[in-house]
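For the sake of clarity, the format in which proteins appear in this thesis is described at this point. Each number in the token line that follows is a code from a learned vocabulary of backbone shapes. One such record is shown here in full, so that the layout can be seen directly:
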Amino acid sequence: MSDDAPKPYVSKIDRRTAITWIGVVGAATAAAAGVVVYGPKTGGKVEAKGYGTDPNLVEPAKAPWPRILTPDQLQTAAILADYILPASATAPSASALGIPDFVDEWVSAPYPDQVKSRAVIVKGLTELGRKVLKANAADRAAAMSAILATPFFISFRKLTIGAYYTTKEGFKDIGYIGNVARVSDPGPSEAVKAALERELKKLGL
């Protein structure tokens, strides 16, 4: 392993959080359906069921499907996620927020959207891992630059960005201030009122 290799990825979020992100990012539409899951850890098929219509997120350890990413795939996910969203002066990196755990949960879940993503993302992580896990920084960057137009990278980037910007750190990074109670409502500004009045006049109203 190169001296400048990233630190080994350590899980950051629990399964309850990761599964909740699946719903937020765009998610499980096949409630209660049993789906055949193929995973690299098993070497075969595992029958897994979704949560059904009444998910129990109080006991995340009882999630009805196994996570399927191998340690190398999870490490590769951390490297790629940080390539997409590295740490900045004002925000943590994607891996620091547990995005690789979310990706693992996403590709492991037995719902149609996730099953559709699984083959592309798992294969992509496996192939990319062969090029980046033992590479130096320059070779890692070159390997990741080479996949920017691939379906794998596009899918992975959507998941990374989608999950990152559902977190409070992601909200802060983009300046989102929703879900905060206001003590008063000053109403629209004079500039907004003037603009509205102009548009109404154009419509003859």
Observations:
- The chain has eight helices and two strands.
- The beta strands are 34-38, 45-49.
